């Protein structure tokens, strides 16, 4: 275990987080809010801890997958702890468990909240909550790779693989640092485009910034108690479109950027993703038609909620908890499916669902025709056993974590739908669930134990489970 490199990178995480808190402090200054001192104290503490760790670059830069997983997991834990300090220092969220829940929910782009009334928060705190979505959407270590010319031992790719969502991560261009820059460039460009369109819809600047952060990171923290429900149909439509866009694999945008539209259109995962959205929207529209004055309004709300749930954003325009059983069941299924690999969305991912389905049909085919040899293909390529093994292992870990988490949350004595969907909403990084954790409610009703379990679920879901689990194995910390 290369501890010196791990601490060196974590030191840079401290420093970068201090820099990322500065815009929130600026918002506090612009609005003359007293909470500015809370950000100043948190920034000072981050620098105090980070600067000593990066003063000397380690001589040994050998960095394997194990170190990559440990570094990513510890970085996200440290980042969440420090990110919770402004809430605690200002007294906005005095409980450290609640502050951690809110911050982890922000960085993991979950959007689940313990706050009962977000509109009473200072503007700087609203900005920081939403900005954590934007930071966590692409990943702070991917951002770190953009800034620092770190090379040696191939560890840059191990960091990117451990932090990026999806079954596999590949370099878009030969150098990892160039890949990280390109990803962030596309991320910023899409964010600026959405921000511009929201401003054209007469949305106030702060509202537009926070909404863009939540959409880009597929997070869902709103600055209104009604989430997006108070805004115009135009703004709701823009948010719907960009939620869906940010749920697409960024490789598609890279191919479009490289002027290869035919290859981009052949992306099989994106095709399935859009088909699921279209089918779900049409079915839900049929079932909720009588709840709205006209078909167009019903379609708009159905499309918004489908886009919000499958991309794991968590915004809402209406309380879908009161919809009929079939639309609610579809939304719960979409919670598990999630967005595309290589996007900012959470969930199991469309690619994994497709691979699992094809694996199942191949097994059934081999039962019927024992001597049949059929290679499993995806995106026009044969899928190797290593990828299938990884997908199967992910699903086993996912089911075990889901089951154990649900048992712990059930200790609070709430109904099964509340307990089940609270775990589904956090492990899949969605935000709202059903019943007591529906879009018109929050997670404040849970005990500290349940909140800690749900914090673990949010981190596990964002980091694709294994980087976090690696921390709990004794062999991880042995020196070989």
UniProtKB/TrEMBL annotation:
Cellular localisation: Cell inner membrane
Major subcellular site: membrane
Database matches in Pfam families: TrkH
Transmembrane residue ranges: 7-30, 36-54, 74-97, 131-151, 182-203, 234-258, 270-288, 329-348, 391-414, 452-473
Keywords: Cell inner membrane, Cell membrane, Ion transport, Membrane, Potassium, Potassium transport, Transmembrane, Transmembrane helix, Transport
Membrane topology recorded in Swiss-Prot or TrEMBL: Multi-pass membrane protein
Family matches, as InterPro entries: Cat_transpt (IPR003445), TrkH (IPR004772)
Domain of life: Bacteria
Record flagged with keyword Transport: yes
Entry similarity comment: Belongs to the TrkH potassium transport family.
Name this protein carries in UniProt: TrkH family potassium uptake protein
């Amino acid at each position: 275990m290369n501890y010196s490199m791990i601490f060196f990178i974590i030191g840079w995480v401290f420093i970068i987080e201090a820099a990322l808190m500065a815009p929130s402090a600026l918002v506090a200054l612009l609005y003359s809010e007293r909470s500015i001192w809370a950000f100043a104290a948190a920034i000072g503490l981050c620098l105090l801890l980070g600067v000593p760790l990066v003063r000397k670059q380690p001589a040994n830069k050998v960095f394997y997958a194990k170190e990559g997983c440990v570094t990513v997991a510890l970085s996200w834990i440290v980042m969440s702890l420090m990110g919770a300090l402004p809430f605690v220092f200002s007294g906005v969220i005095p409980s450290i468990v609640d502050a951690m829940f809110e911050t982890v929910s922000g960085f993991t782009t979950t959007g689940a909240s313990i706050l009962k009334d977000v509109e009473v928060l200072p503007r700087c705190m609203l900005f920081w909550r939403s900005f954590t979505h934007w930071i966590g959407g692409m990943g702070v270590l991917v951002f770190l790779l953009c800034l620092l010319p770190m090379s040696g031992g191939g560890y840059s790719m191990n960091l990117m693989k451990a932090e990026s969502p999806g079954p596999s991560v590949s370099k878009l261009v030969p150098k990892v640092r160039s890949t990280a820059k390109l990803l962030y460039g596309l991320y910023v460009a899409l964010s600026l485009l959405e921000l511009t369109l929201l401003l054209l819809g007469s949305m106030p600047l702060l509202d537009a910034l926070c909404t863009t952060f939540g959409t880009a990171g597929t997070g869902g923290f709103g600055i209104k108690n009604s989430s997006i429900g108070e805004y115009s149909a135009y703004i709701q439509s823009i948010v719907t479109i960009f939620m869906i866009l940010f749920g697409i694999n960024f490789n598609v945008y890279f191919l479009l950027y490289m002027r290869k539209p035919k290859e981009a259109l052949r992306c099989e995962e994106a095709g399935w993703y859009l088909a699921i959205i279209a089918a779900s929207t049409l079915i839900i529209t049929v079932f909720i038609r009588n709840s709205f004055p006209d078909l167009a309004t019903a379609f708009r709300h159905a499309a918004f909620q489908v886009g919000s749930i499958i991309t794991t954003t968590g915004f809402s325009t209406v309380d879908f908890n009161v919809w009929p059983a079939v639309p609610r069941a579809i939304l719960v299924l979409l919670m598990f499916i999630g967005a595309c690999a290589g996007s900012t969305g959470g969930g199991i991912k469309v690619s994994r669902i497709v691979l699992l389905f094809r694996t199942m049909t191949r097994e059934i085919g081999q039962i019927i025709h024992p001597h049949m040899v059929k290679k499993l293909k995806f995106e026009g390529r044969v899928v190797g056993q290593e990828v299938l093994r990884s997908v199967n292992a992910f699903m086993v870990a996912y089911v075990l974590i889901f089951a154990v988490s649900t048992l712990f949350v059930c200790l609070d004595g709430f109904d099964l739908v509340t307990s089940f969907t609270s775990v589904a909403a956090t492990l899949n990084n969605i935000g709202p669930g059903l019943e007591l954790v529906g879009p018109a409610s929050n997670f404040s009703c849970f005990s500290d134990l349940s909140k800690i379990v749900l914090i673990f679920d949010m981190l596990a879901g964002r980091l694709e489970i294994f980087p976090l689990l690696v921390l709990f194995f004794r062999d991880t910390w042995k020196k070989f």
